[in-house]
Amino acid sequence: MGQGLSCGTNDEHGLFSAVQHGDLETVEAVLDKNPSLIHHTVYDRYSVLHVAAANGQIEILSMLLSRSVNPDLSNRHKQTPLMLAAMHGKINCVQKLIEAGANILKFDSVNGRTCLHYAAYYGHSDCLKVILSAARTNHVAVSWGYSRFVNIRDGKGATPLHLAARQRRPECVHALLDSGALVCASTGGYGFPGSTPLHLAARGGSLDCVRELLAWGADRLNRDASGRIPYTVALRHNHGACAALLNPSSAEPLVWPSPLKLISELNQEAKVLLERALMEANREREKSILKGTSFSVASPSHSDTGTDDNVSEISDTELCGICFDQVCTIEVQPCGHQMCAQCTLALCCHNKPNPMTATVAIPACPFCRSSIVQLIVAKVKTENSIELDVNSPKLRKSRRSWNLNEGSSSFKGLGAVGSISKIVGRGSGRIAIENEWIDKPVGLDT
């Protein structure tokens, strides 16, 4: 590709170089001397705002915006500064551009993608969350609808969830699923036609992405346009561990229970505890599935060292009144009764949709039968009334192996488991690989 400045003046070249390196004083001096340079562009029509956004130069970007530069300037490929900031994970620039009114609904002409697609494709979950948060509050929620935006498709029919699953981005997969991304949506021309996010995660071989998708209800029996299920895709690409989990004959994973969606307010900390309990239960299931095979599953991130000694300090009154084994970490509101995260999940899993109305009953407290309005993190105290952090690794396992063989079937089930490559950076331009347009650098001689 050709390189070089569209205008060879020293001032213009010095301006773009100063923006790239974050030299605010020089940028201001050049623009004060020649204000028209703020509208000049370099190869492929990259403006100074594009360069500042791609390189995370927040002070220069803020100064340019204060001089009434259009936040939605487009380069030759219709890429905006917001897209480049999301592509490179420059979260401060993403936030500033959105505050300045940058349009999160604009599509580029390379792949027909928005800033949300770029954040998901490159795995910048923080930028993705900022964009999703903006979509909840600005005109997108009114004109498009938030759910429609989360599932927006690019030019090849891929949603951000498809891209995150294919590129092995579990944090982005989780954030999108938590925001309402459709777990079983099919692609158009992206990847293999008719692929679901689970097909693409199987192709990429990411166990973490497969786990997330299965925990959110992805169907292992969905078929792509050629009739393949995700299990077949994983085998074809030699991802044996993924194939073992996706095998339709293996035990089904636990799924995030739909009754939790009916609770009017699910405290974020409590949600983290419940999600952790769900994923750890599924990891136990994975160990059983992969036992005796050549595949291994990463052990939970916490250590069991010192667990028994610490839990022995917990008063018996703090143990869950349902399983009498785990420490109470979740408190039900408004009644105030407490139970462990695992039993809370089992309680919600036990509530099935009414076959007559197809609606899910609101979960009720197992102790007083009042409706659960809110779930919060319970305060755990030792016998000496010292509060403990329920997120502590030492409290994630009880002094006995968790065994719910006696009790309801739902509880049993839960317990059993110098150039533009320098100035703009990577990702401007395109090349075709495996039926997918991906970005490659373009250069600018200095």
Structure description:
There is one protein chain. The chain is mainly alpha-helical. The protein has 21 helices and ten strands. It has helices at residues 10-21, 24-33, 48-54, 58-66, 81-87, 91-99, 115-121, 125-137, 139-143, 146-150, 160-166, 170-178, 197-204, 207-215, 230-236, 240-246, 268-290, 307-311, 341-350, 409-415, 420-423, and strands spanning 41-42, 46-47, 265-266, 330-333, 338-339, 374-377, 380-381, 387-388, 431-433, 436-438. The longest helix has 23 residues, at 268-290. The radius of gyration is 26 Å and the shape is globular. Residues 320-369 form the RING-type domain. GO terms for molecular function: transcription cis-regulatory region binding; ubiquitin protein ligase activity; zinc ion binding. Its EC number is 2.3.2.27. InterPro entries: Ankyrin-SOCS_Box (IPR050663), Ankyrin_rpt (IPR002110), Ankyrin_rpt-contain_sf (IPR036770), RING_XB3-like (IPR056760), Znf_RING (IPR001841), Znf_RING/FYVE/PHD (IPR013083).
Distance between the termini: 15 Å
Q: Structural class, judged by helices and strands? A: mainly alpha
Low-confidence stretches: 1-8, 296-314, 382-388, 393-423, 426-446
Q: Return the CATH architecture of the domain at 270-415.
A: 2-Layer Sandwich
Instruction: Give me the oligomer status.
Output: single chain
Radius of gyration: 26 Å
Please summarize the sheet with the most strands. Answer: 4 strands, mixed
Count of helical regions: 21
CATH class category name of the domain at 270-415: Alpha Beta
Fold blueprint:
Elements: H1 10-21, H2 24-33, E1 41-42, E2 46-47, H3 48-54, H4 58-66, H5 81-87, H6 91-99, H7 115-121, H8 125-137, H9 139-143, H10 146-150, H11 160-166, H12 170-178, H13 197-204, H14 207-215, H15 230-236, H16 240-246, E3 265-266, H17 268-290, H18 307-311, E4 330-333, E5 338-339, H19 341-350, E6 374-377, E7 380-381, E8 387-388, H20 409-415, H21 420-423, E9 431-433, E10 436-438
Parallel strand pairs: 3-6
Antiparallel strand pairs: 1-2, 4-5, 4-6, 7-8, 9-10
Helix pairs in contact: 1-2, 3-4, 3-5, 4-6, 5-6, 5-7, 6-8, 7-8, 7-11, 11-12, 11-13, 12-14, 13-14, 13-15, 15-16, 17-19, 19-20
